[in-house]
Specification:
- It contains twelve helices and ten strands.
- The protein has helices at residues 69-78, 85-92, 95-125, 130-147, 157-174, 206-211, 215-230, 233-252, 261-271, 276-292, 298-307, 327-343, and strands at residues 2-8, 15-23, 26-31, 34-39, 54-57, 63-66, 151-152, 183-188, 194-196, 201-205.
- It has a six-stranded antiparallel β-sheet with strand order 4-3-2-1-6-5. Strands 7-8-10-9 form a four-stranded mixed β-sheet.
C-alpha cells in the first residue's frame, strides 16, 4: 500500500505531507527531510468512524493521518488486518441496518420492561430474607400513619376479635406453610380502606367494616389483601419501579441519587399503589377462596361498589391509588371468573 498521509511529530501541530508505505511487517514514511520506518504491529490504526480520517500512532507518540479511508480499508481487507469494528462501521453506513437495529433494541427494551422486569422482581421479592420485609413493614407503617390520619380503633373488642379469628383461618388456608406472621390491625380513619404490608401485616379501618352489610363482605376484602401479601405485590411493585430508575441511571450516567434508594424504600412502599395486574391477581385470588368457601364473589363485588363507586378516591393519597382498575371492570372480572368456575365439570 502506498498512499498519501500527514505526519505530526510528537507534541507538535506542524503538518508534514508524507508518503505512507505499508508492506509486510513494516510501516515506512517518506518526505523531504524525513525518512522513517517502524514495525507495523507497533503502530496501532484508529478504528473507522463514518468518513472521518484515520491515523496510525507511532511508538514515540507521533501520528500519521490518512484521509483516503477507502484505500486504507482496501489495504486492511487484502492483508486481513481489519478488526470487528469494520462490521459495525458497515452496519452504521447502511440506514436499513441501523433502522432494523433500532427497532430490535426498542423491542428488546419493551419486552424487558413488560416481562423481564416483572419476572425478576417476583423472583427477588419472594426470596428476600424475612428481616427485610419486617424492616420495610415497620418503616412503611410509620409512613402510612403520617399519610393517613389514623386513630385507635373504636370498634368493640369482641367484634375485632371475631374478625381477627376469621382472618387467621383465611390466611392459613390461602397461604399454607408460609413463614410469614399474618396479623390484623384495626384503625379509625375518615375513609374506608384496607391495605397489606410485606411481612404479613394487614390493616383495616373501622369505616370499611361499618359499611359492610354482611361479614363476608369484610372477609372478601381481607382475602384480597392476603393475596397481596402472599404474592408480595408491594415489594414487587417497588422493585420494578426501582429497576426502571436504576436502568435509567445507567443509561444517563447520573448516579447522584442512587445512594438514597435503600433509605427511600419504605416511603416508596407506602406511597406506591399496586399495578392493575396485581389488583386483578388479588381480586381473582380472593374470588377463588370465596368460591371454595361457598360465599361466591357477590360479597366482594357488593363491598367494592359500596366503598368505591367512582374509583376509590382517597383525597391526599388518591395519586397513590390511581393505578387501581375501575370498580366496574373489577366486578365484571370477578363475575366472569365465578361463571367460568361454575362451568367447570
Amino acid at each position: 500500500m502506498t498512499i498519501p498521509g500527514t505526519y505530526y511529530a510528537p507534541g507538535s501541530s506542524c503538518a508534514i505531507d508524507v508518503t505512507v508505505q505499508a508492506e509486510g511487517a513494516a510501516l515506512r514514511l517518506t518526505a523531504a527531510g524525513l525518512e522513517r520506518q517502524e514495525n507495523l504491529d507497533d503502530c496501532p490504526l484508529s478504528e473507522p468512524l463514518g468518513r472521518m480520517a484515520r491515523h496510525f500512532t507511532l511508538p514515540d507518540g507521533a501520528r500519521v493521518e490518512i484521509t483516503d479511508i477507502d484505500a486504507l480499508a482496501a489495504w486492511e481487507k487484502s492483508h486481513r488486518r481489519s478488526s470487528g469494528m469494520h462490521l459495525v462501521h458497515g452496519l452504521e453506513s447502511r440506514w436499513r441496518w441501523v433502522a432494523a437495529a433500532a427497532l430490535f433494541l426498542i423491542g428488546l427494551m419493551t419486552a424487558g420492561y413488560l416481562w423481564g422486569l416483572p419476572m425478576a422482581a417476583k423472583h427477588i421479592a419472594l426470596r428476600l430474607p424475612p428481616k427485610i420485609s419486617q424492616l420495610a413493614t415497620e418503616q412503611a407503617m410509620g409512613a402510612f400513619e403520617t399519610l393517613f390520619d389514623f386513630e385507635a380503633s373504636k370498634l368493640p373488642q369482641e367484634r375485632r376479635d371475631a374478625i381477627a379469628a376469621q382472618f387467621a383461618k383465611m390466611a392459613a388456608a390461602m397461604d399454607p406453610g408460609s413463614q410469614r406472621q399474618y396479623r390484623l390491625r384495626f384503625f379509625h380513619a375518615p375513609f374506608p380502606n384496607a391495605f397489606a404490608l410485606p411481612d404479613g401485616l394487614v390493616c383495616i379501618t373501622d369505616e370499611l367494616i361499618e359499611k359492610a352489610k354482611h361479614d363476608n363482605e369484610v372477609f372478601g376484602v381481607l382475602a384480597h389483601e392476603i393475596v397481596h401479601v402472599r404474592e408480595q405485590h408491594g415489594l414487587r411493585n417497588v422493585l420494578q419501579d426501582s429497576a426502571v430508575f436504576l436502568l435509567w441511571t445507567l443509561m444517563t450516567g447520573d448516579i447522584s441519587t442512587v445512594a438514597g434508594m435503600g433509605a427511600a424504600l419504605p416511603a416508596m412502599l407506602a406511597q406506591s399503589g399496586y399495578s392493575r395486574g396485581f389488583e386483578r391477581e388479588a381480586d381473582l385470588g380472593a374470588a377463588d377462596y370465596m368460591i371454595r368457601a361457598g360465599w361466591g364473589v357477590k360479597p366482594l363485588c357488593d363491598m367494592l361498589q359500596r366503598i368505591d363507586p367512582e374509583g376509590f378516591d382517597l383525597g391526599k393519597t388518591g395519586e397513590a391509588l390511581s393505578t387501581h382498575p375501575l370498580t366496574g371492570e373489577r366486578v365484571k372480572a370477578l363475575e366472569a371468573h365465578e361463571a367460568a368456575h361454575d362451568r367447570q365439570p
